[in-house]
Amino acid sequence: MRIVLGVDLGTNSCSLVGLDEAGGVVLRRRMRRETVITFAGKLPDCVVATRRAAGRITWAASWRAKGTRYGSCHRNMSGPI
């Protein structure tokens, strides 16, 4: 099962929402910034998506180093989690 993980990058914590292939919510969690990359690396076949925000390039490099696919979207294309 492929999971799309939407991440809202906050200053101290991040909100995560995981969707399955059918678009159903399988995960909804708030985590500290330090634990998000480790958590995403443990998910099977995960795609991470974030809004274009400050620091996203550093986050993208960290996710790609762990073998996780990453993408970002414009802030107007994303809604509230």
The helix/strand series, from N terminus to C terminus, equals EEEHEHE
Q: Uncertain segments of ≥5 residues (pLDDT<50)?
A: none
Helix content: 10-25%
* Assembly type: single chain
- The CATH topology is Nucleotidyltransferase, domain 5
Give the overall shape, derived from the CA principal axes: globular
Amount of beta strand: 35-45%
How do the strands and helices of this protein lay out in sequence?
Layout: E1 3-9, E2 13-19, E3 25-32, H1 33-42, E4 46-51, H2 56-65, E5 69-73
Parallel strand pairs: 1-4, 4-5
Antiparallel strand pairs: 1-2, 2-3
Question: Please, could you describe this protein's structure?
Answer:
This protein is α/β, with parallel strands linked by helices and 81 residues long. The protein has one domain: ATPase, nucleotide binding domain (Nucleotidyltransferase, domain 5), CATH 3.30.420.40. The chain has 2 helices and 5 strands, in the order βββαβαβ. It has helices at residues 33-42, 56-65, and strands at 3-9, 13-19, 25-32, 46-51, 69-73. The protein has a 5-stranded mixed beta sheet, covered by helices on one side. Strand 1 (3-9) and strand 2 (13-19) form a beta hairpin. The two termini are 22 Å apart.
